[in-house]
Amino acid sequence: MEQHEHEPVFDLVGIDPDSVDNRCCGVWVDPETGDPYFRGKIVTDPRILARFERDAPASADEGVFRLPARMRPIIAEAVTGTYEPGRIGHGDIDLDDLLKTARTSLIHLETRDTYDPDHPAYVDWKAGGDGLYDRSGWLGVVSSIAERGVRMRRSRVISSPPTDTTRWMHMHTDANVEAGEDVRWLVRDTAPDLLVPVADFWLIDHRLIVFSTTTGDGTFLRDHYSNDPDVIARSLLAFERIWERATPHIDFKIA
């Protein structure tokens, strides 16, 4: 978890494991005092609030929040102090699982000319091999998403002449399209007036965006998550303008 200067230090014991966007109820602990902090659904039902008020009248700075019962083990860890010090959640977020939560739309923007230079199939291809590998896992994810009626679009912004990485990815893209992705390509030199985000991203249902950063040679570094409406709106606008200019995969040839 990225730590900013002067930001309070808390251990994230866990978030709601069934939250569709991993941005919901959470439990934190102040490691210095041991005080637990809870974020849940704000209770607004006047009947419930009146019932609680009879038992324990609230102060002006207090509120009532609801956490789902499935979070009891996480709450128990926070209250008893049995979680691991320095914890930042109950587990890593799996991007494929996150994408599967999409209900209407998935958008993917790729802006780099180099990706994963040590991928075995890419290394094999550069050495004269066929560069093929088992992609059934990802293609299965795409198929299952498309079968649910989710529109899945991918735009690739590339340089010309294309890099070896781009040529290798282009070779594999027919399978993406067959599985259900709509893929388009845009050459930078044809659209220098467009503003392009500095990092690749996935946008899920216009509600959650996942930016991916890499090192200089294209090696994956980490993901950054945001549900900020302004960030999502600006990113979506950039994508749509790129999409309008880009060429559908079926019509885009690489010599």
Automatic annotation (TrEMBL):
Organism: Actinocorallia longicatena
Domain DUF6879: 94-252
The organism's place on the tree of life at top rank: Bacteria
Name listed for the protein in its UniProt record: DUF6879 domain-containing protein
InterPro entries, sorted: DUF6879 (IPR049244)
Pfam families: DUF6879
